[in-house]
Amino acid sequence: MKAYKDIYYKYITFAMIGAVTVGILIGVTSINRMYLIVALVVWLLANAGFWQYLAIRRKKMLDTLLNECKLAEYIDSYEALDQRFPRFGDLFDKNEIKLNLTAGLYAHGEFSEMKRVLDTVKLRNSTDVKDLVQKVAYLNDLALYYIERGQLGEAEAELSECYPLFDYAKFKEPKRSLCLDATERVYAVLQIKRGNYDGLDKRFINWVKDVEDPITKVMCSYRLGEVYYNNGMTEEANKQFEFVKKYGGDSFYAERAANALTLKGSHKAKL
Questions:
Q1: Angle 113-117-122 (CA atoms, 0-180°, nearest 5)?
Q2: What Rg, from alpha-carbon coordinates, does the chain have?
Q3: How many CB atoms lie within 10 A of CB 260?
Q4: How far apart are CA 183 and CA 163, in angstroms?
Q5: Are the C-beta atoms of residues 159 and 201 closer than 8 Å to each other?
Q6: Which of 29, 63, 166, 236 lies 20 to 30 angstroms, CA to CA, from 94?
Q7: Exposed / middle / buried, residue 129 (Cβ in 10 Å: 0-12, 13-18, 19+)
């Protein structure tokens, strides 16, 4: 809830109104204090539940922007959240906003800005599952940045820090498998950039079928097309690029796919 400053402050305001009202009633009425205390507890719980519901609904709306590849709008929303986050807010929630922002910046092709935001993330030294998930996301994002910059050794170093995290007993399912799959996809992208294509077509075909969120499906289709393209399977690659061009919105995947589709003959696209 603290991620959304307007919602959080309204939650605090209405909680205080309830507490002050009950305090006044205790002093000026003959109503049994126990009843008033129970009423206050019910009010506080209902108030918290209501504003938490609004926060969850807003988060889903933002996730929809990402999944529909409306990245410019998604980035604007998260930049505003990052700037408005309460200074006293929880560090984990602040990091979540930043990592959501970097996901949008990466998909939009804003790699330098992505790195700038990543440099402001300060991970908590905790082995709670939510902190492990956050650390994996952070390391994956760094690896993706380095891959785009051609710093493949640095990318592999970041990924190598991910795998020991999956051995923590607290890293329970289904979070563990979801994070492991995400890391494996980044590692597969690293292999593409190294020119190691063996078996990657099958992996990305499975991911295209299995992943549910549209942005990840677009990414996997693009990478599958990239594998086909580099293996000289132009027709198969173009099928993937057509899908990415159609559903990739304003992502760099759609831009690069469209570029690949326009080049003919011996001209090679920069993927």
A1: 160
A2: 23
A3: 24
A4: 8
A5: no
A6: 166
A7: middle
Which of 92-95's residues contact partners 24+ apart within 8 Å by CB, and which partners?
A: 92/124, 92/130, 92/131, 92/134, 93/2, 93/3, 95/121, 95/122, 95/123, 95/124, 95/134, 95/138
Give me the amino acid identity at 140: N
CA angle 60–54–126, rounded 5-degree value? 70
pLDDT of residue 202: 97
Split at pLDDT 50, 70, 90, the class of 3 is low
What pLDDT shows up at residue 33?
83
User: What is the rounded CA–CA span in Å between residue 21 and residue 27?
Assistant: 10
Residue 71 pLDDT > 90: yes
Q: What is the pLDDT of residues 174-204, one digit of tens each?
A: 999 999 999 999 999 999 999 999 999 999 9
Question: 123 CB contacts (<8 Å, ≥6 apart)?
Answer: 95, 131, 134, 135, 138
Encoded tokens for 36 = 């008033």
DSSP per residue over 169-201, as a string?
TT--TTHHHHHHHHHHHHHHHHHHHTT--TTHH
Cα dist from 249 to 66, 72, 94, 113, 201, whole Å:
10, 10, 27, 20, 24
- For 51-80, b where at least 16 C-beta lie within 10 A, e where not — what string? beebbeebeeebeebbbebbbeebbebbbe
